[in-house]
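In full, the data:

***
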Amino acid sequence: MKKIFLLLVLIILAIYSIPAQEMQLSLGLELGIGVFNIDNEFAVPSTAFGSGFRREHEELDYVFLAPGLSFSLRGFSDTESSLLIGYFVRSRIILSAILWETSPIGNNKVTKKYTLSDDEGPVLSLIEFDFGPSVRFIISEKLYLITDFGLNVTFLEKEVYRTYGQNRILNYWGIGLYGAAALQTNLNKTMYMEFGLNWMINIISSQEGTYPTGLNQYINYEDSGRWDLFSAGVFVHIGWRIDLAAQRAASIERFLAAQPAGQSGFELVRINGGTAIRITRYAGNDSIVRIPAQMQNLPVTSIGDWAFAECNITSAVIPFGVVSIGEGAFYRNRLNSITIPGSVTSIREHAFHLNELSQIVLGANVSINGSAFDNDFAAFYNENGSRAGTYTFRDGSWSVDFEFWI
């Protein structure tokens, strides 16, 4: 059981590390109604002294009504679409329970009622974890429909007073499916309330425990008998939305505002849900510029519109990892040559217009706007099959060497 619990913790941490723009954290009450059945055989000590072990068959049916406390965490990578797909992690702990136990007595079946406050009888202690994909539908400006569907892991402890007045303890774990649907309504900009229905069912399970042998001694046993567990419930939650994208943007603004003039020379924003950097402006004075591959521990993937325009740059190093070069990014500088890494897939209009480029090292299949370079370079590049190579402008015309490129 410890291995299962450790694996569950690792899965939850992995899910939580998925980048998200909005996080939803909610806590509330839940009322569960469920059934479970125990049907197994196992070896137990014989009640006769020295007679060894005997096989015991146990078949018990339970119906339970259990209020509990539940917690959920959801993450969505987009907040603008009408249909959002994200992930959820949920946990439930039973606070109390009423159980009806049906067990065979001879040829008859007897039903008994137990509560957690009883001195004898079964004690139900259930902890449940669920995780998987979550989908949000926008019904109106203040009303949403949330659906969750994923895996369920349940830990259950059942304690029964049996032989010699000592406790027999069964520890159970099960893996199955979980589903939920909830209506979510905004209370204000950050808080919401949700009402929902959910269900869970275990598909595979196992148990282990102790059995009293008398004189305050126990044996440990493990058995994979059949435990069928199904539960349905209603819940009401109060939740909080955390706008992670806005928090990241605010952190960037605070960071940039704290930088002394000229220390970094780069103005930037985070893009793609806060997972990458776009350089929006170069405020430095150096004529030789080396763009870093990473800033704030994130990859630089985009050079924004007019970011290095009219900065009197004579040399620029663009790192591998940059995917797009925006409009007018290096407009009106003094570049004689430029090496554009193979990660770049698009170069927009006027990106290198009004420079003195005589050599361009470029990868294959780059989408180049017709006005991105001077001297009809884009047309020459396309006519040569958009192949990677070193392109040289000499005596009023372009030539290409396909053997040397980056």
